[in-house]
Amino acid sequence: MLRNIEKIVEELRLKVPFKEGTQAGDVILIVRENEAGLVEIVFARVIGYAPEIRHRQEWWHVDLVLLSIPLGYATFVVNADQLSGKEIFTIKGRKVFIKAVDTESPIRETFAEEEEEPPPQRGGLRLVRPRPPGDGD
Predict the structure, then answer these.
(1) Is the pTM of this model over 0.70?
(2) What does the angle CA 45 – CA 49 – CA 55 come to, to the nearest 5 degrees?
(3) CA quadruple 42, 47, 50, 54: dihedral positive or negative?
(4) Residue 14 lies in a domain
């Protein structure tokens, strides 16, 4: 059972290719404590964001689609450091970590490392039709 969010985030930072910033359309990783105190990890896609006018600058309403079954929708109000994964913060007394995942360059690098040389090509197939008896023999 996952219980220590700080240790989990530390390990994820070593294994997951994270991006520095977060933009609309990005896939983010959310690590959060649930009601039982266990840690949940879920992916989401940022639909969009807008400034939060009740807080000081650099706070945002971030609209998300939770990539789970069934899909879920959520809006987080976070500041720039929280949105970029620079700090673990709390929502309703539960710890949360958010950071955008780099979904492009690591995939290319990983597949490039795993690609094998194609097998040597053999001569192509050709259709050989039998000749009728007595034709050119």
Answers:
(1) yes
(2) 130
(3) negative
(4) yes
